[in-house]
Amino acid sequence: MNKRTSQIKNVLEKLYARYNHRDLIKPDPLQFVYKYSNRADMEIAGFLSASLAYGRVEQIEKSLTKLFSLTGNSPFDFTRNLNKKSRQKLKSFKHRFTKGDDISDLLELFRRVIKKYGSIEEFFAQGYSKDEPNIISALSKFCRTLLQMHAEKHDGHISKGLKYLLTDPANGSTCKRMNLFLRWMVRNDDVDAGLWRSIDSSKLIVPVDVHMSRLCRILGFYEQKTVSLKTALQITKGFAEIEPSDPVRYDFALSRVGIIENCTGKHRKDCQFCELFSICFK
């Protein structure tokens, strides 16, 4: 580890110590996972919460509050028993361009997955190999298989809404929401739930959004202007040089800098109070 990398690691550890705490999760959509104590409920709640993690934070909170009021006390039971009546119940739901029918189609797929495999984890694990360099191949198989399952039941038709909820990294997307869900499920600390034991955290990819891409560019992890899957892989490689066994360790803490501290990537007076100040703009 060179001097610059060592310096960045020390700064990131300070950020981790400051922000990586359960009581600082809100307003992150991860908060909805911890509204449940049953593993099966947390897994379904996690996927739905990550899937709708786009747009303004306030709107995400509002939409997820509405969605989980519709699914009732147990998102798992709602999914397992999904029928025409419950699909009708979700008709009123809408989050930006995700409609209630899109959520119903997703839960119908999970209903079938649960019936055959018992959990989303067991289904995901069918496409996972420890020999792969990262989780991308398994994630692609996961999304592709689910979309094929839907197409087979609907004369080959797949709605844009469902495709958006099951974004395939093979198309070049950063798959921020999918990678966010995997972080929640695989990592285990005061923030991440660590429900999945079959996936190695070293295989995870950093969930790259506007805040993360801005900060990682400042840190020198990438230079290109457009953000794609290639960018996410570059960023992950940068973090892997710092923490090989857990490259997404600092994701939550760094995202707090963007969300809580309202970092814009431009120098301002308050920057002097941020742990990143010693390495930003250097």
Question: In words, what does this structure look like?
Answer:
With 282 residues, the chain is mainly alpha-helical. It has one domain (3-278). It has helices at 3-19, 39-51, 57-71, 75-80, 84-89, 100-117, 120-125, 136-153, 160-165, 176-186, 210-218, 229-242, 251-259, and strands at residues 94-95, 98-99. It has a two-stranded antiparallel ribbon with strand order 1-2. β1 (94-95) and β2 form a beta hairpin. It is globular and about 60 Å long. The model has no long low-confidence stretch (mean pLDDT 92).
Count of discrete domains = 1
Q: What is the end-to-end distance?
A: 19 Å
User: Which percent range fits the helix content?
Assistant: 40-55%
Average pLDDT, rounded to a whole number, is 92
- Taking all Cα atoms into account, the compactness measure Rg is 19 Å
Set out the fold topology.
Layout: H1 3-19, H2 39-51, H3 57-71, H4 75-80, H5 84-89, E1 94-95, E2 98-99, H6 100-117, H7 120-125, H8 136-153, H9 160-165, H10 176-186, H11 210-218, H12 229-242, H13 251-259
Antiparallel strand pairs: 1-2
Helix pairs in contact: 1-13, 2-10
What descriptive keywords fit this protein?
282 residues; two-stranded antiparallel ribbon; globular; 1% strand; mainly alpha; 2 strands; single chain
Give the structure's gist in a few sentences.
The protein contains 13 helices and two strands; from the N terminus they run H-H-H-H-H-E-E-H-H-H-H-H-H-H-H.
